[in-house]
Amino acid sequence: MRIKKIPSNVLYTHYEGWRTSRYHFSFADYNDPKNNRYGVLRALNDELIQPESGFDLHPHDEMEIISYCIQGEMSHSDSMGNQGIIRRGDVQYMCAGSGVTHAEMNDTPNQTLRFMQIWVLPNQAGLTPHYQHTRISKHSRQNKMLQIASGSRKNGVFQINQDANIFVAEMQKGKHIQFEQPENRQDYLVCIEGNLEINGVELSQYEAAQISSETQLYLTAREDSHLLLVEMAEA
Known about the structure:
The chain is mainly beta. The chain has one domain (9-233): Jelly Rolls (Sandwich), CATH 2.60.120. It has strands at 3-6, 12-15, 19-23, 41-49, 53-60, 64-71, 73-78, 83-87, 91-95, 100-106, 113-120, 130-134, 146-150, 158-159, 164-171, 176-180, 185-193, 195-198, 201-204, 208-212, 216-221, 225-233. It has a 7-stranded mixed sheet, with no helix packed on it. It has a 7-stranded antiparallel sheet with strand order 2-3-4-11-6-9-12, with no helix packed on it. The chain has a 4-stranded antiparallel sheet with strand order 5-10-7-8, with no helix packed on it. The protein starts with a strand and ends with a strand.
């Protein structure tokens, strides 16, 4: 198996009035022992939050948490005293480490919030919690892979505590991206918006692909598209 398509209709969808959540892996009330994670990728949730609602203060520990905003505004506050707002294309990173509480809210009165939350298992326990966020221009991710997180130190990229890399891209219809990576790596790719092909496999909005043993990825946008890619060592 080199590319396994994950159709949108197999994703577990949780409806709760104020939010609609699509879980790519077991999470909260969704428990599937055969779908607990993909490598070090523990959770990937596509969240749609209604105006003036959100996740009130709640605890986390022993997890690397990356949030990527797609639509609207997400406000963050935590027990470390941090506060921030991210908008489309912006990213926030929180090392939950030994323990932290935080809230993620849509404080706007009339705009729906959509964001992706990515949980990556850390490479060690008991890390000191910390938080960062950054604003990202559309130009920096247009028709090219923009790295937003890395397991190693890189300028302008969040350094996370795991051998994993996260990329995003917005592609105009008809554009192509070639992505190369070393051997013995695997990927999880999500089509956030639009319709695209990855090595000949078509993905529409919300669909994903598990990719293994591919050193070259060829991406083509069949229409204006938006994607997220998590790359890691093969499990």
